[in-house]
Structures are given as structure tokens and as C-alpha cells.
Specification:
Length: 374
């Protein structure tokens, strides 16, 4: 399934085919922020960027824009929160198998069962919608459409079932929404705390964008410093600091320690990416470190693996990066950003909300003002 998804769902070609959706959604976001700016209000970027990211993923994955649909919107967000909550809940039986009764007693099994049923109902509705007769002609192709095509393609090696499709939708929702939102908030947080970097990246963006109102995906390829800012953000504020757990296949010895087969292994990427033996001044937000360096986050350079490495490597990287760069470039191109009155940069905290994805704990609230065209 992963191979099929990487080739057909997450390929660069497929990701490019969603560029109109990205442009539309980033423009919508800019409009909302302009509204806040003209009423001199404070913008809660954490809320806005989460909503932006979930709208993007839903449109790309299954062609729906829940932001337009009141009750459906809250149902969808409720489900998304529940997935996140259950995925980060501690089940003692994961570690001590015969203690399953404790999880049961705490009501965790019943809750898990109930949420899985609701999720399944939701995924089934998505599938039914895509099977509707007038669907194909009226809407742009989304990921579920592609999966349907693959299901009917005799050259695909496995027999794709609806359960496979449901599994893929679930993976995309869980893995794609929160991560993208969290990283965009961390990037803005880091820039607000580092005015030198903010000034430098805005100069680059505004030089490339010059008289344009909106930077598109081609312009972004020229933004070398913005790309370094992205890498530095992912070095210091990676949303999945322990990746996803692995299990050792066979017994092995590492640094003299015997690791039995079937041991759950967590990779502490947070520590690797702040290791003073690897990074000079590791705690400093210094994007320049990547300017003359070939280190990249595609899973080959083990000092920088915010998307993991090996077989479980994140297949969403092309989509995540293009989305993050587009949104960040335009936030910084169109607006100047200031802290709410009375706040100084030292007041911005970098505390983390406990959970499966590392979000900034306290919402990032900033004042935007439209940039002055010179
Ligand atoms: C900045 C944003 C993102 C970050 C930092 C991120 C990070 C990660 C990490 C660390 C993993 C586990 C890799 C490992 O353990 O080796 C992962 C897996 C995954 N990611 Fe991402 N991700 C991001 C965005 C996305 C997006 C946008 C999508 C899809 C639309 C996505 C889809 C997936 C999927 C399906 C997996 C599971 C792969 C597997 O288990 O084989 N990710 N991601």
C-alpha cells in the first residue's frame, strides 16, 4: 500500500496537480488576515493555520471544504480531535501485555471502539459520495478518486478494498493535518523571536515578489533563505520528536547493550537535532547553517530527520514542504507582523502542548498590518 501511495498519491506530479487548491486556500487565509488587520484586531495564527491546514487536506484528500458547512465542520473537527486524543492516550497493555484489563477498566477500550465506529461511518460516507453518479464530472480529482481509479486498474498488483481506502484516508488525515499546522506556527514563532532572521527572509521574499500581490509556487523555488528557515524550524521544532515507534525484528547489540527482538524502539530525533556534537550552537535559530550545506531532510542525512528515515519515511514531504513554503512566503510577503501591545519577543514562549504532535502550547497571537508597497 505504501508503494502504491508513494507512486500514485504522493508523487511530485500529483502534488503539483493540487496547486490550484493550495493557491485558493492560501488566498482565503490572506483575506481573513486582511480583515483582522483592517479592524486593528489581533490574529490568532494558531487557530487560523490549523483550520487552513485541515481545509487543505480535506479538499485534496476527499474534495470537501468543511469550513463552508457549519454542522459538518464541527463533526469533522470533533472526529479529528478524537483521533489525535486516542492516538496519544497511554494504553498500558502496549507495554505490559497481560494488563489489558486495566485499559478496559479505565473505559479506554469502549471509547476506542466507539470512536472507530464513528470514524468508519465518516469514511464510508466519503466513499459513498465518491461513488455517486454525478461526482466525476463536477469536481476536480482528489486522492479518493485516484484510489478508486487504482481499485479498477488491473495492472495494480494488489486487490484494493474499501478498507484499504479507509486506511489511507485515516493516515492522511492524522499524519497531514496537525503536522503542517504545527510547523507553520513554529516557523512564525521562531521568526517573531528572531527579528534579524525575520527581516532577512522578508527582504528576500519581497525582492523576488516585488510588485506582485501573491507569490506562487514557481517564485518560491527562488527563495533560498526561506528554505533554510524551513529546515531550521524543522530542526528545532519537529512535530514528531520520537518519530513513530518501531519494533526490532531480531536481537542485536548497540554500543554494548543487548536489544532483544520485539523491543519497542523510539528514535529521539529531538535530541539528535540539538546535539552539540553535531550542531554548532544548537539552541540558536540560525538558518544560515544550511546555506552552504548539503544537509537535507529526505532521510539520507541522519542528523536531520524530522520526517523520519527508512521504510516508514514520511511520504507527505513534497506536499508538506510546498504547502508550508507557500503559506509562509505569502504571510511574510503581504503583512508586517507585530506582537500585541505590551508584549516583547522574550514573552513569546516555546512551550509544547503534550500530545502526538508537538503543537505550541499557548496560541500564537499577532497583529498583522498590510505591508507598505515601496
Ligand atoms: C511538516 C509536516 C510533516 C512532518 C514533520 C511529518 C513527519 C512525519 C514523520 C516523522 C513520520 C514518521 C516517519 C518515521 O517514523 O520514519 C511521518 C509519517 C507519515 N506521514 Fe508525515 N509529516 C508531515 C506531513 C505529512 C503530510 C502533509 C502527509 C500527507 C498528506 C503525511 C503523511 C504521512 C504518512 C501517511 C505517514 C506514515 C508512513 C508510514 O508509516 O509508512 N505527512 N510523517
Amino acid at each position: 500500500m505504501k508503494k502504491i501511495c508513494v507512486t500514485h498519491i504522493f508523487s511530485s506530479k500529483r502534488v503539483s496537480s493540487f496547486s490550484t487548491i493550495r493557491k485558493f486556500e492560501v488566498k482565503q487565509l490572506m483575506k481573513i488576515i486582511s480583515g483582522h488587520a483592517s479592524s486593528l484586531g489581533v490574529t490568532n495564527l494558531s487557530e487560523l493555520l490549523l483550520s487552513f491546514s485541515s481545509t487543505m487536506i480535506c479538499r485534496i484528500a476527499f474534495g470537501r471544504r468543511y469550513e463552508d458547512e457549519g454542522t459538518e465542520r464541527s463533526r469533522f473537527h470533533g472526529l479529528l480531535n478524537e483521533i489525535q486524543a486516542m492516538a496519544s492516550t497511554f494504553f498500558i497493555s502496549d507495554y505490559i501485555p497481560f494488563t489489558g484489563w486495566i485499559d478496559k477498566l479505565k473505559g479506554l477500550h469502549a471509547r476506542l471502539e466507539q470512536s472507530c465506529k464513528e470514524l468508519d461511518r465518516f469514511y464510508q460516507e466519503v466513499i459513498d459520495e465518491h461513488m455517486g453518479s454525478n461526482r466525476q464530472q463536477t469536481q476536480e480529482q482528489d486522492m479518493v478518486d485516484v484510489l478508486f481509479q487504482l481499485k479498477n486498474d488491473p495492472s495494480i498488483a494488489i486487490d484494493l478494498t474499501y478498507d484499504h481506502i479507509k486506511g489511507v484516508i485515516m493516515d492522511i488525515l492524522v499524519a497531514g493535518t496537525d503536522t503542517t499546522a504545527a510547523v507553520s506556527v513554529w516557523a512564525m514563532t521562531a521568526l517573531m523571536k528572531n527579528p534579524r532572521v525575520m527581516k532577512k527572509v522578508q527582504e528576500e521574499i519581497r525582492h523576488v515578489g516585488r510588485a506582485k500581490d501573491f507569490l506562487d509556487e514557481d517564485d518560491i523555488q527562488k527563495l533560498t533563505y526561506l528554505k533554510a528557515v524551513m529546515k531550521e524550524t524543522l530542526r528545532l521544532h519537529l512535530p514528531a520528536p520520537l518519530l513513530v515507534p518501531r519494533e526490532s525484528n531480531e536481537e542485536c547489540i548497540i554500543d554494548g547493550y543487548r536489544i532483544p527482538a520485539k523491543t519497542i524502539v523510539y528514535v529521539n530525533v529531538w535530541a539528535i537535532q540539538r546535539d552539540p556534537e553535531i550542531w554548532k550552537n544548537p539552541e540558536e535559530f540560525y538558518p544560515e547553517r544550511f546555506l552552504d550545506s548539503s544537509i537535507d531532510f529526505h532521510g539520507q542525512d541522519f542528523e536531520l530527520i524530522p520526517f523520519g528515515a527508512g521504510r516508514r519515511f514520511c511520504p507527505g514531504v513534497p506536499m508538506a514542504i510546498v504547502t508550508l513554503e507557500l503559506v509562509l512566503a505569502n504571510l511574510l510577503h503581504s503583512f508586517d507582523w507585530e506582537l500585541p501591545q505590551g508584549m516583547v519577543k522574550e514573552d513569546i514562549d516555546v512551550e509544547v502542548f503534550p500530545g502526538i504532535t508537538q503543537h505550541k502550547k499557548n496560541h500564537l497571537c499577532l497583529c498583522a498590518s498590510p505591508r507598505s508597497h515601496t
